[in-house]
Protein 1
Amino acid sequence: MKYIILVPDGAADYPVEEYSNKTPLEVANLENIREIERRSEIGLIKTLFDDMDYGSDVANMTILGYDPKKYLTGRGALEALALDINLQRNDVAFRCNFITVQNNIIISYNADNITTEESRSLIKELNERFNHIGKFYTGIGYRNIFVTKLDVEEIKTYPPHDIVGKNIYNYLIEPRNNPKIKELNDMIIESRKVLEPHEINKHRKKRGKKPANMIWLWGQGRKPEAMSFYDKYKLKAGVAAEVIVIKGIGKLLHMEVPNIPGATGSFDTNYDNLAKYAIELLKRNDLVFIHVESPDEAGHEGDFELKVKCLEEIDRRIVGHILNKINEITDDFKLAILPDHPTPVKIRTHTGDPVPYLIYSSNKNIKNCLKFCERDARNGKFLEGLNFMRYFLKF
Ligand SMILES: [Zn+2]
């Protein structure tokens, strides 16, 4: 038996008036998913908790059956794992976004989708300027890491995608009276002097792109520890993912985590390579966890049609490829498709609503007339996120 879990990040949504009160999942032309959904179970699953951040780190840990309250120390620490950064005691790893600021207002949480190569040059500059405070590491695109020694336990930070249009001075790191935190806040403010005049930003402005003129630190955490996926489920597993937070979860659980060429975590990502690597992973493993970032990004951009297009690409180039190739590996497989959380285009951030799931088994003869969408899923079963893995494996 082989197991495939496909997570289109942030794919769930709310009905949008301008599109006949439909959601992107309802509007998208999903030929492959529509083909298998007639023989699948459709239902709703709650992947988030109302007393925790509505983050992808929380949701994906939950889907994998690991209680985020117990195992999650902060997204930055997971992402550090993905970059093979060896965190020491007293180290805190922050996610470091490149952002765009105008008159102290955040106008882009990802510096207009800055590339990894551009980030690399800026990170080099930051390390030269601020090496007495900590160390910056290049990640993927605008998603980078900053590590520093810190003995403050209760640190509060704000995800930049939640404060677009807001004044930076109201959302700096807290508690602001702590001298070490003040040093970090001063560094954030000063980063503008280093970044604004940088060559990379001159080129970006010439090309009509917003400059990456400030850093933003958030999602901090200390080194996490958890039981391996194999020890927990007795299954060998791999992760086909683009973004470092998901790769970090894979590394934490000792799953196989390849670097996938062209997997950018943005709209230009190489969906074909994600699918190919997923199939390769499945040859050597019992289970593959595939995570695709683009629908979430489209949700944060507030772009309905772009989100529809991302879902169609995932259906055609990932689901299609897997259904084509799986028979070369096995006749016996289960496939689950579920978003980790909604990122509704109307509100442009994550919400904690339950999301639709689809579970298909090559061994089961199900007759189903529910569609894989938010509306129909309400007429199916309701699962608690932490029960998903056991449910899926036994299905
Ligand atoms: Zn997510």
Note: Residues 91-221 form one domain.
Protein 2
Amino acid sequence: MLKEIIAKTILHYHKRQFATNWDANIYRGCGHNCRYCFAQYSHKYLENTDFFNDIFVKTNSPELLYKELGEIKWDKSPVNVCGISDCYQPVEQVCKIMPRVIKSFIAKRNPLVITTKSSLLLRDIDLIKELLKVAEVSIIVSVSTLDEEKRKLVEPNTAPTIDRLKILKKFNEIGCKTSVLFVPIIPFISDDYENLDAIFRITKEFNLGSINAWPLHLRGNTKNVFFDFLQNNYLELLPKFKKLYQTKNASKEYCKDLFSRIEELKVKYQLYSTYKPTKPIKKPIQTSLFD
Ligand code: SF4
């Protein structure tokens, strides 16, 4: 169910930097339905438990962004508009709020960060080209497996992984800063050498910038949802996961082995760079919204 809400504020600072310290959540909840989704906890603040089906959209996001990005004290930091939920998730096809959000960034000449698993982003390429004339745009695509059968099970409503990487290449070619977020690497499902090597190789061949790779972590209720998924789809793996995930993280031995394999691939493909958007010089310019 789609629920429209009016937010009071939109920019949020968080201490832990992921691409930037600032985000703006246009949506709460996400219909991509990734079985490992770490953001499910966020729905408890809305007193709702159905993160994947009850999607909240902040309909006044473009106006709030226009206002807050234009405040005197605002330092024009890059803002990630997909902080908790993917802003190009399926309902965006109906809501069409992202074009108006991007227009606010154009009007305020503010750097933008988009993190997505969707191909819908292509719809807005012309607006992103406009924004690139006045501010930096960073696009981060997260991936887990190139095996389509597995992808359809684990992340059922996302775009095929290879399509996401091809789209990222397109955005790189028009001048966006790009990065691949190889997260989560799922033990026994997407951690095989073939998959790891292929994602690193494509990142290099497509010239996609940096790559960050991390194993699955299962915090709070995410563990129950993921274990239910295993029960229904990979029953034989359930005992192995229970042994591996005695806490929210995979065992130290597993992580050590995985990170050493990741390091080898970084050397093999000479992919060392760490993604970080450039902080702009503050230069507020007032223009009218949506003209
Ligand atoms: S795209 Fe991100 S926010 Fe949406 S379900 Fe998947 S992991 Fe969760």
Note: Residues 30, 32-34, 37, 39, 85-86, 89, 117 surround iron/sulfur cluster (CB under 6 Å).
Protein 3
Amino acid sequence: MSTFPSTPEEFYALRDDRTNRCVTSSDYQRIGCAVYLASNQAATADGQTMLLVAANLLSRWCRRVTIALPSTVAHPELGSGDLGRLVLAQMQDADPFGEFQVVDIESAALSDVALCIGGRPPRAASGTTVFISASGWLAGLSYQQPLAMPMSHPANRLGAVAAACLGVGQIFKMALGMHAELGLREGTFDLSRLEWSNELSLGWPTSTDVGKVLMVGAGSVGSAVAYCARVAGLRGSIDILDRDTIKVENFNRSPIFGHTTFGLTKASAVARFLGESKLWATPIEEWWKEFTERKGRLSIDYDVWLPLANEFNVRHAMQQWVPPLMIHASTGVNWGVNHGRHVPGRDDCLVDRFPAEVSADQLACSTAQVSIANVSVDAALPFASVFAGILITADLVRALLPDYPQVPNFALFDWYGPLDVILKSNRQPRPGCVCLDQGQAFHDRFNAATKYRSSFGF
Ligand SMILES: [Zn+2]
């Protein structure tokens, strides 16, 4: 195991490597940000969630962050705990060399850019402020004042996580000096329906028991799923399969990897994080190949698989094992976040979605249009991985609601542009794809008892 970097230069060279693969300028490294939590939001779960997530995301690329709080406020989940101390500890774990401070909102000095949760801060230059707001499934982004949000189910804080992604994503664009036309659009994003709308979003399930989950790959997206699942209060069990260990290069986009988890396996770090959640988490420090060689298919009895490893052959190998419901999301160097869902008998499969792993002669005999997926590479922006995690978590919740699946099986979020258009479609299997041979008889044999069987197309 390598040792932790002892100098800022050494640390940032590793930490920012993956971010630098996505951008053409290093201007983001020099900017100072402030996050303001207005008093009207300070005591709310949505307000505190937005603060915790935004501060976490900022600390993974911004080296100078000031957190401005109205006064010492208690975290509802920590009893008498100090929210400022909690936020600061989380940021210092993500970046031990960062200049992070918590100040009183009245004494906060002017910063280069400001992320505002709730009202306008006492001192903020116009044109440098971004407002975020949240309620239930809804995430708001605006530039002049916070958006008014309808009341929603108090247990649902997923909109708050999405709002933090939107806000920090926009701050990152401003820090890069990107053209205003590429700025994120204002408005209310409904995470339940994956569209810009503040009208009727989906409800919240009476039980958040998602059943038995298999997570394959606990890297940036997998750890973000764990982070969001804990926020959502998901129950059930989750086995976390990954043999890789945590490196500084992972810190830029995972919300839970940091100094204290450096060198641990990703599986054990994610399981440890979930120790404080309502999910029973078990780390499995193996690769997929080792896991399947040790176990027979009939002994792999999970209700839902999360295929989050990005090696192509893993996805292909997983599909060959006749998976039940699968939910995933992936990120790329081009700022895109892809969301995918695969309900057997209804949707396309992993082989359809990631055709790059299929040999050329297999594709040649297909007359269907071959979709070139936004293939995942090992680089992404901080907000992109957490956004991928929230998309997966949202679909796990949707699966507990009536009329699943409520949204198409594919969605593409292009974070490079204003996010005005969210490409959504229902992908179908290619003629001759392996999944078409995995018909009802196969699924009855392997997946008949799984929790989401009733949503299957046969
Ligand atoms: Zn297929």
Note: Confidence is low (pLDDT under 50) at residues 357-377.
